[in-house]
């Protein structure tokens, strides 16, 4: 069982409007340069920077690219001093730990360098600041979120191909003095966590990388319990043991986590984000000087 699918990383990358690679392509282009630099030299006539810029403006994605640049700069103007290098590194480390040895290759598959991904994480943190400044969260909102909330838990799992095999291993795991970690190393087909007894990184109700059937079963367990039957997932059949479940408690005990979950959901809500961006643009007094791109922010 993989903890995070590649689609999850893409989701992380796509949270804000910021797109480093595309945005960088427009940097320095424009008619304001006293010298029209050459972008491409060739037989007949060269391609100048102004020609390149003019052609870019005709592309259907030009306004989207401009939106991304405006959002990125506006976020830096308003919240840049509130997000430090250590804040970015802290988030980066959590993803690095979750992906483990596969992290570098997954970044490469998504066409991101370490530096570029850190920049994207920074933009995500800046956007969170903008959302937090624009969204008022009440106790009523917290109580509503608490209904679906589950605290971070850690489990160990054994994955096998068939249900019959899973039932046999489950029976062994339920025996007195059974060593679950040893059974995981002996039987599990999930090679990613054999060396740590089948343990998975902690997860809560916001996790979308694990099968829903898996998390639903896991959240019913108390510390030390093993789920009553094998759970069918896309990876096969899984035996689940709860390593640590702190218990849900009361909503007042989890205000910080609940607020974070609400804000994360808001970042995926188009209506909320439209309001957030409209406020951001107004605060930055945006005026688009190029007539060809003047309606790039129409709708905000």
Kindly state the mean pLDDT as a whole number? 89
- Major beta-sheet overview: 3 strands, antiparallel
State the total count of DSSP E strands: 5
Identify the overall geometry: elongated
How large, in whole angstroms, is the Cα Rg? 25 Å
Helix content: 40-55%
Quaternary state reads single chain
String of helices and strands: HHEEHHHHHHEHHHEEHH
Cα end-to-end separation:
42 Å
- Count of the separate structural domains: 2
Helical segment tally?
A: 13
Keywords:
300 residues, mainly alpha, Chitinase A, domain 3, three-stranded antiparallel beta sheet, 13 helices, 8% strand
Structure write-up:
A hairpin with a 6-residue loop joins strand 1 and strand 2 (47-48). The protein folds into 2 domains: 6-129 and 269-293, no CATH class; 154-244, Chitinase A, domain 3, CATH 3.10.50.40. The protein is built from 13 helices and 5 strands. It has 300 residues and is mostly helical. Helix 4 (62-79) packs across helix 7 and helix 8 (139-146) packs across helix 12 (255-266). Helices cover 49% and strands 8% of the residues. The longest helix has 21 residues, at 114-134. The strands form 2 sheets. A 3-stranded antiparallel β-sheet has the order 3-5-4, sandwiched between helices. Residues 150-244 form the PpiC domain.
């Amino acid at each position: 069982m993989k903890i995070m699918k590649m689609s999850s990383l893409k989701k992380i990358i796509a949270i804000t409007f910021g797109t480093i690679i595309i945005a960088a392509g427009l940097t320095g282009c424009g008619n304001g340069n006293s010298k029209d630099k050459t972008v491409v030299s060739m037989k007949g006539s060269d391609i100048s920077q102004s020609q390149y810029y003019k052609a870019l403006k005709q592309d259907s994605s030009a306004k989207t690219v401009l939106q991304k640049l405006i959002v990125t700069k506006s976020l830096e103007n308003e919240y840049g001093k509130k997000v430090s290098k250590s804040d970015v590194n802290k988030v980066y480390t959590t993803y690095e730990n979750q992906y483990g040895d596969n992290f570098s290759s997954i970044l490469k598959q998504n066409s991101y360098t370490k530096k570029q991904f850190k920049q994207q994480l920074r933009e995500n943190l800046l956007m969170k600041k903008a959302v937090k400044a624009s969204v008022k969260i009440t106790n009523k909102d917290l109580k509503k979120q608490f209904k679906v909330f589950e605290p971070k838990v850690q489990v160990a799992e054994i994955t096998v191909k068939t249900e019959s095999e899973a039932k046999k291993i489950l029976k062994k795991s339920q025996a007195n003095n059974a060593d679950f970690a040893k059974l995981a190393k002996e039987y599990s087909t999930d090679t990613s966590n054999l060396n740590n007894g089948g343990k998975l990184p902690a997860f809560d109700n916001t996790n979308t990388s694990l099968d829903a059937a898996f998390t639903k079963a896991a959240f019913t367990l108390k510390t030390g319990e093993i789920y009553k039957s094998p759970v069918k997932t896309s990876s096969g059949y899984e035996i689940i043991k709860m390593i640590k479940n702190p218990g849900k408690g009361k909503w007042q005990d989890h205000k910080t986590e609940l607020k974070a979950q609400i804000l994360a959901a808001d970042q995926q809500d188009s209506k909320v984000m439209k309001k957030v961006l409209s406020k951001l643009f107004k605060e930055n007094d945006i005026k688009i000087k190029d007539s060809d791109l003047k309606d790039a922010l129409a709708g905000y």
